[in-house]
């Protein structure tokens, strides 16, 4: 809705936020409800689908983090002077692949298991049988180790470059020389400095997001590897705890956005205001949009002003007194209609 957010970095973060919301609804909610009730509540079919949903959103989140890390690496380390953050057709294809590739991987994994997804009553959870062929292959390790290694490498280079730029020790990004040759004077230099500060903050934000995900997922992954590769038996409470820590990862990103990104907070507030205005237009209350239920002009907050409210109360009391005065003859007519004429009674 705002043109200044139409950049690849913001689109990837918004896509990641959408993935977190779906993971919270489709993945976390059934698990938390089943753990609370100490039994699976949604049937055998949903239990198997839930396993695939968890694997899908894990891969989806990892691919988002890889894409965000590479986008920042490309913008700051690889080609800072020529990088274009605008949305192109190829970048749209990348986003589509981020959402579709996990579907293929989960489907192949499911058929590789031969459909051997079993319910484990101590964990209130369906998972692949430990004697399935996939557990004797390095695929689960590759799915975690390879993308996390890529993410760490890209962000290590990113932070190294940003710190070097901040201390003016690395000549790989010669923004000042470009500013001197453009004859723009100090204004161009100030723009470059502002861009450096912005890039550094963006790099730190990405690193915080990735660190939060790794910290939340590492206990779950460690428990998974030890149980399935080294046949280490943990109490069910340990596995449930590691899973709950992993589920928290879907809540960390909104917290990071709200704390670290002022522009995101402002964008969300403006979007909510626009949605509220649109709802007022589409679903009017039957009166003028600027007039309340009692004919009062609404303030920007939707509350009638105190002065107008007091004036309305006085006018209402006056109307009530006038109505009582006008109704006196009617009451007299009702009370004395059978005895005297109303005018005679009033004269008396």
UniProtKB/TrEMBL annotation:
Gene Ontology CC annotations of this record: plasma membrane
G-protein coupled receptors family 1 profile domain location: 1-257
Keywords carried by this UniProt record: G-protein coupled receptor, Membrane, Receptor, Transducer, Transmembrane, Transmembrane helix
Record's subcellular location: Membrane
Pfam families xrefs: 7tm_1 (PF00001)
InterPro entries tied to this protein: GPCR_Rhodpsn, GPCR_Rhodpsn_7TM
Main location: membrane
Membrane topology type: Multi-pass membrane protein
Membrane-traversing stretches: 49-71, 92-114, 134-156, 202-221
Entry GO MF terms: G protein-coupled receptor activity
Protein name according to UniProt: G-protein coupled receptors family 1 profile domain-containing protein
Originating species: Pocillopora damicornis
């Amino acid at each position: 809705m705002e043109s200044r957010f139409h950049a690849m970095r913001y689109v990837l973060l918004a896509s990641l936020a959408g993935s977190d919301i779906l993971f919270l609804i489709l993945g976390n909610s059934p698990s938390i409800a089943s753990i609370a009730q100490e039994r699976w509540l949604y049937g055998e079919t949903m239990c198997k689908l839930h396993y695939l949903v968890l694997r899908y959103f894990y891969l989806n989140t990892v691919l988002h983090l890889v894409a965000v890390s590479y986008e920042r690496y490309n913008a700051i380390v690889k080609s800072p002077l020529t990088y274009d953050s605008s949305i192109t057709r190829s970048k749209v294809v990348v986003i589509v692949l981020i959402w579709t590739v996990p579907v293929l991987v989960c489907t192949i994994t499911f058929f590789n298991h031969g459909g051997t997804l079993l319910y484990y009553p101590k964990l209130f959870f369906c998972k692949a049988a430990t004697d399935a062929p996939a557990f004797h292959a390095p695929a689960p390790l590759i799915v975690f180790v390879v993308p996390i290694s890529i993410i760490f490498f890209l962000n290590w280079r990113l932070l190294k470059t940003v710190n070097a730029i901040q201390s003016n020790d690395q000549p790989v990004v010669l923004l000042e020389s470009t500013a001197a040759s453009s004859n723009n004077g100090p204004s161009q230099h100030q723009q470059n400095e502002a861009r450096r500060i912005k890039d550094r903050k963006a790099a730190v934000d990405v690193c915080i997001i990735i660190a939060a995900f790794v910290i939340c997922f590492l206990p779950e992954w460690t428990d998974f590897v030890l149980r399935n590769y080294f046949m280490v038996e943990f109490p069910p409470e340990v596995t449930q705890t590691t899973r709950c820590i992993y589920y928290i990862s879907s809540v960390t990103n909104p917290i990071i956005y709200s704390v670290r990104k002022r522009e995101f907070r402002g964008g969300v507030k403006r979007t909510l205001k626009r949605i509220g205005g649109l709802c007022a237009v589409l679903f009017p209350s039957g009166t003028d949009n600027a007039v309340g239920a009692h004919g009062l002009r609404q303030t920007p907050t939707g509350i009638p002003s105190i002065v107008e409210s007091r004036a309305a109360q006085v006018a209402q009391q006056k109307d009530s007194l006038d109505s009582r005065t006008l109704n006196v003859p009617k009451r007299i007519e009702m009370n004395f209609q059978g005895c005297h004429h109303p005018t005679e009674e009033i004269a008396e």
